[in-house]
Amino acid sequence: MNPIHRLKEIREDKDLLQDDIAKILNMSKKGYSHYETNYSEIPNQKLITLAKFYDTSIDYLLYLTDERKPNKNR
What is the number of other CB atoms lying within 10 angstroms of the CB of residue 29? Predict the structure, then answer.
């Protein structure tokens, strides 16, 4: 299955473990790993939390843009 998001890529860029992000999202590591492997759909609120944590846009997380920083002028 092709990834539809950058969760693993951006997490590894920050030298974080799945367990670290699972704690931020207040969920189990297994539940979070399902997001990274595209086994489970990511709820909107979790995407918002991740975008804020990584200081990026949801568009970047979902491969809708390659610009990592959100456009502050929108």
Answer: 14
Query: pLDDT tens digits for 6-46?
Result: 999 999 999 999 999 999 999 999 999 999 998 899 999 99
Spatial distance between the Cα atoms of 20 and 28, rounded to a whole number of angstroms: 10
pTM: 0.86
List the end-to-end C-alpha distance of the chain, in Å, as a whole number. 33
Map out the domains of the chain with their CATH numbers: 7-61 (1.10.260.40)
Instruction: At 17, give phi and psi (nearest 5°).
Output: -100, 160
Taking residue 48's Cβ as centre, other Cβ atoms within 10 Å add up to: 11
